[in-house]
Amino acid sequence: MKRSLKNRRRRTRAPAFSDAATAILDVAERLAQTRGYNGFSYADIAARLGVTKASLHYHFPSKEELGRALIERYEAAFAAALDAIDQATGEPRQRLRRYVALYDGVMRNERMCLCGMLAAEHSTLPRAMQGELQRFFDMNERWLAHLLQEGRRSGLFSFRESASGRARIILSALEGAMLVARSYSDPRRFRVAAGHVLDGVGARGR
Amino acid sequence: MKRSLKNRRRRTRAPAFSDAATAILDVAERLAQTRGYNGFSYADIAARLGVTKASLHYHFPSKEELGRALIERYEAAFAAALDAIDQATGEPRQRLRRYVALYDGVMRNERMCLCGMLAAEHSTLPRAMQGELQRFFDMNERWLAHLLQEGRRSGLFSFRESASGRARIILSALEGAMLVARSYSDPRRFRVAAGHVLDGVGARGR
DNA sequence: GTCTATAGGTGGATAGAC
DNA sequence: GTCTATCCACCTATAGAC
Fold it and tell me: Of A105, A169, B17, B189, which has the highest C-beta tally within 10 A?
């Protein structure tokens, strides 16, 4: 009963990768976010880095291990971004706006959320990766639900369903907006939809 | 100036396929909706039908042609379903509920919207398929926008943005809800999110 | 750590017999 | 229309030299 309840979310330790491994992950991440896990190969990564396929296997023996590392690193970075938001401001509407801005940044990079992309390929992924996907979405929903609950208590947000229900809606809407916007190669499509997500809880106000 | 304005949407003629071609498309469609376009092969289809890969190429010489046929047939079937809704009832809330039920039926089949799935793989698809994808989403948005406009005029729906803006939000939210629900293999997740889409315009009734 | 070389498998696609 | 047989490109992965 004595353990601190603060920051109990931090279960995702950012793994330490060598410079070479980091370079591989950077390239693989971009490829996975634009083409999907089944849409890129070791050859693609090797070509972009100017090395051979074999050397990649030294750092990531199998593609499954590479895929797991991708999700783990992505989730850790996302968790850090959420912490940064929490520490920058306590104002709920601003925190929600910054959350949406995270996704907007991904789109502006002509990518899609890594985990949204992998969700489409879910049934073709190794079991371990499937489990990590859920953890990512769970983390997002928990963070959002907490924020929504707090904002509603202080009269800033307004919505009928439960906070976690609304969190799911927001997450789904953002992922879906990215998905559809990709077919039009138009990030503005995402931005407009994202704005209405904020309106939905009464959080757009400047 | 004399041409009828009724049914001017019908640009998608349902192509006639032989029995064998239809059987191939049925299997390919299920595979594409569960595993993605890059996630299945001619070998997968052939195995499930008990024929050889070579015979598939007689009906669909290349995978790109197969992919195009998949989207065209899917879009035609969807357009027919929208027409059926329009003819069954003119009541806007009911029509919107039936629209959402279309997507729910897809999820209940343990699939995801074909075009939502393909949207994730967008950048890896042949150009022709990319164009057809947009047409599918455009058709959905036009139908929804028209319905929303009508419902708002009669005081049944309420939303702040333009009808086409709201149509995009609804489409994105439904596609996103399917996407995320897949990671949990839980269609109920979709159904709850879909219900809130209806609430969003005041259409849940009852 | 990175290389060359290669294994063993699967991808889409074609030729030609039946 | 469906088959057998085959092609070549590409996939993930490994062995072993440097």
Answer: A169
pLDDT in tens, A41-83: 999 999 999 999 999 999 999 999 999 999 999 999 999 999 9
Q: Quote the crossing angle between the two packed helices A127-153 and A63-88, to the nearest 10°.
A: 10
Number of Cβ within 10 Å of residue A58's Cβ equals 11
> How many Å from the CA of B73 to C1' of D4?
32
Q: Which of A120, A180, A200 lies at the smallest CB-CB distance from B137? A: A180
3-state secondary structure (DSSP) of residue A127 = helix
Task: Tell me, yes or no, if A107 comes closer than 8 A to chain B by beta carbon.
Answer: no
Element (H, E) at B201: none
A150/A167 Cα distance (integer angstroms)? 12
* Contact criterion met (CB below 8 Å) for B118 and B70: no
Q: How is domain A2-14+70-199 classified at the CATH fold level?
A: Tetracycline Repressor; domain 2 (1.10.357)
Please give the pLDDT value at position B193: 87
pLDDT level of residue A7 (50, 70, 90 thresholds) = very low
Domain boundaries, chain B: 2-14+70-199
Separation of alpha carbons A83 and A81, rounded Å: 5
**Which helix (H) or strand (E) segment is B75 a member of?**
helix B63-88
Tokens of B105: 């039926």
Q: Does B117 have pLDDT greater than 90?
A: yes
Nucleotide nearest A60, CA–C1', reads D13
Q: Which of residues 164-193 of B touch A (CB under 8 A)?
A: 165-166, 168-169, 171-184, 189, 192-193
Residue B102 DSSP code: H
Residue A68 and residue A128 in contact, taking contact as beta carbons nearer than 8 Å: yes
Other C-beta atoms lying within 10 Å of the C-beta of residue B187:
16
Give the pTM. 0.93
